Amino acid sequence: MDRYITTPLTKEKAAELEAGDMVYITGTLYTARDAAHRRMAEALSEGRELPFPLKDSIVYYMGPSPAREGRPIGSAGPTTASRMDRYTPELLDLGMTGMIGKGRRSAEVHEAVIRNGAVYFAAIGGAGALLSKAITASETVAYEDLGTEAVRKLTVKDFPVIVVLDSRGNDLYKNAY
Questions:
Q1: What is the Cα–Cα distance from 64 to 50, expressed in whole angstroms?
Q2: Is the four-CA dihedral 27, 32, 37, 41 of positive or negative sign?
Q3: Is 2-176 a domain of CATH 3.20.130.10?
Q4: What confidence score (pLDDT) does residue 175 get?
Q5: Which of 22, 63, 165, 177 is 20 to 30 A from 99, alpha carbon to alpha carbon?
Q6: Where are the chain's structural domains?
Q7: What residues have CB less than 8 Å from 127, skipping those under 6 apart?
Q8: pTM
Q9: Cis peptide leading into 53, omega within 30 of 0?
């Protein structure tokens, strides 16, 4: 089923989504990959605040290419989500409700998604140029020294994703094979 949502992604909105749904997101996404997740984990262990509000947020595992003239961002395809699995349960427990990436997730992430009423979306790998057309603004908000792995705040309009793991634990990867 096609669904259109606007961020923030509350637990109530997440509960309405089902594995296999095509979702078009409008609003704010934050980007973070391996290095940014490592820094966020360090900040949390030291009692420092994170560079963006986690509550009801969606984190996109993406590292963009340079923007073409007149565009806010270059190619913006997903990266393999399992690389963030060691950090994800804690972020979900702290209020994050959505993630966008590609590939399967660990059993610990599955449990944390269900426990927190969250959802994992997949973006289509290899379609980064197409996905970038749904991004209307991009701003680096933290860890600028990480380059493409810096945390960015994206503004998106009808950003296309598929629900892979819903809040009840239904997993499209498991059911599709």
A1: 21
A2: negative
A3: yes
A4: 76
A5: 177
A6: 2-176
A7: 77
A8: 0.94
A9: no
Active site residues: 37
Q: What is the pLDDT of residue 176?
A: 64
Distance CA 143, CA 118 (A): 26
pLDDT of residue 93: 97
In angstroms, the CA 14 to CA 167 distance is 7
Contact (CB, 8 A) for 110 and 81: no
Q: What is the pLDDT of residue 154?
A: 96
d(CA 124, CA 101): 8
Instruction: Count CA within 13 A, CB hemisphere, residue 135.
Output: 27
Is residue 109 within 8 A of residue 175, CB to CB? The reply is no
The predicted structure's pLDDT at residue 69: 83
Sequence-distant (≥ 6) Cβ neighbours of residue 46 within 8 angstroms: none
* Residues 10 and 118: beta-carbon distance below 8 Å: no
SS3 content of the chain, % helix, strand, coil (to 5): 30, 30, 40
DSSP letters, 114-163, are: HHHT-EEEE--TT-HHHHHTTEEEEEEEE-GGGGGGSEEEEEEEEEEEEE
